């Protein structure tokens, strides 16, 4: 499809076209859905992967104002002026925003008071990033200044007062917790897991639930021995415990410590392994121990691991991908081995962006 800003559909956000946060608000809901579906089809076609006999669900599109994470940019442009927002497209110029139709309302409502407290926390003409995450206890906010300096007593008091007034769960500045009302956690399948301000999480709670549902649905009914590769803090690991014994592999030590705490507390059938899967993918003998392999790699995919998987006899492989290019590349390798693509479930969790998340299910041929 060829679609342009000439569309007659009116974007809901007043900042669209200037703010680089969204690229596709100019499309009507039906055109937007068609565009994403066609994007998926073209990606698989480029790898000569036929979807004719694949269970291919319509794309699931998340609702506006459900994004639980945002990385805001800030610049104290003048004595009493702080711009807070996102970069312009292909630029480092910050668009000062008043509204955002993507993030949760409580994150949007934080922008104005955040702008005010940054007058006290940022030196003149300096910049910062603000990481905001919705957790079970409220908002977890972390300020990372481009030019860190020791906070004065007045700055600490201003930050603490801001955190109290906004009912934050935690406020950190330059890596140091300044205020903690409660240790932030997120819940996966009913199990709470500690998070840090830089924790990797899916974009929304809806995304967590949808991905867990699709992955668990793809697990065969009899008890399984499951490998969860790139397991993070347990987005899929924890729901998978209801379907078999799970071995989780992850290179982020902090994520593993947090997940192990939850596993121990609830006596779950999970064994965790600290493993750099890009440098040290699971070997063929290790993979042979599992009935099902689930993997949820970063944007670059899991090329080294996929090459090993393509040579195994694992009955089912379930892959969660946030990048169609690496997804279809890895799918091609599995198909050229001895696997067959059986199911494809797309998720549009980054609303109005070019990104698409997909869950693909592969079965061993024969």
TrEMBL record:
CDD domains, alphabetized: AdoMet_MTases
GO biological process, alphabetically ordered: rRNA base methylation
Active site: 322 (nucleophile)
GO molecular function, one term: rRNA (uridine-C5-)-methyltransferase activity
Keywords: Methyltransferase, S-adenosyl-L-methionine, Transferase
Residue ranges of domain Methyltransferase small in the record: 222-312
Residue ranges of coiled coil: none
Keyword Transmembrane helix: no
Listed InterPro entries: SAM-dependent_MTases_sf (IPR029063), Small_mtfrase_dom (IPR007848), U5_MeTrfase_fam (IPR010280)
Residues holding S-adenosyl-L-methionine: 202, 230, 250, 296
Stated family: Belongs to the class I-like SAM-binding methyltransferase superfamily. RNA M5U methyltransferase family.
Protein name: 23S rRNA (Uracil(1939)-C(5))-methyltransferase RlmD
Gene behind the chain: rlmD
């Amino acid at each position: 499809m060829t679609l342009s800003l000439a569309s007659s559909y009116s974007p809901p956000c007043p900042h669209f076209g200037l703010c680089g946060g969204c690229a596709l608000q100019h499309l009507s809901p039906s055109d937007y859905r068609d565009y994403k579906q066609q994007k998926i089809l073209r990606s698989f076609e480029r790898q000569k992967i036929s979807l004719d006999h694949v269970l291919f669900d319509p794309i699931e599109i998340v609702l506006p104002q459900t994004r639980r994470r945002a990385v805001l940019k800030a610049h104290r442009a003048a004595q009493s002026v702080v711009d807070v927002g996102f970069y312009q497209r292909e630029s480092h110029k910050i668009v000062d925003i008043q509204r955002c139709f993507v993030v949760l309302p409580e994150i949007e409502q934080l922008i104005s008071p955040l702008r005010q407290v940054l007058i006290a926390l940022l030196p003149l003409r300096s910049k910062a990033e603000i990481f905001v995450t919705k957790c079970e206890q409220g908002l977890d906010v972390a300020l990372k200044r481009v030019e860190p300096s020791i906070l004065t007593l007045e700055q600490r008091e201003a930050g603490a007062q801001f955190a109290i007034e906004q009912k934050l769960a935690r406020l950190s500045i330059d890596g140091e917790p300044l205020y903690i009302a409660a240790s932030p956690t997120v819940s996966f399948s009913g199990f709470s897991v500690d998070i840090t301000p830089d924790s990797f999480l899916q974009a929304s709670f809806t995304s967590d639930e949808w991905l867990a549902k699709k992955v668990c649905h793809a697990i065969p009914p009899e008890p399984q021995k499951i490998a969860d590769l790139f397991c993070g803090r347990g987005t899929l690991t924890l729901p998978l415990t209801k379907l078999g014994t799970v071995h989780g592999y992850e290179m982020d030590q902090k994520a593993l410590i947090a997940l192990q705490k939850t596993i121990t507390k609830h006596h779950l059938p999970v064994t965790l392994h600290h493993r750099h899967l890009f440098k040290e993918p699971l070997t063929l003998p290790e993979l042979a121990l599992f009935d099902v392999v689930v993997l949820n790699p970063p944007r670059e995919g899991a090329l080294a691991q996929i090459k090993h998987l393509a040579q195994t006899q694992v009955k089912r492989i379930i892959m969660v991908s946030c990048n169609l290019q690496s997804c279809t590349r890895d799918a091609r390798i599995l198909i050229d081995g001895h696997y067959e693509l059986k199911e494809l479930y797309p998720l549009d969790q980054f609303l109005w962006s070019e990104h698409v998340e997909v869950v693909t299910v592969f079965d061993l041929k024969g």
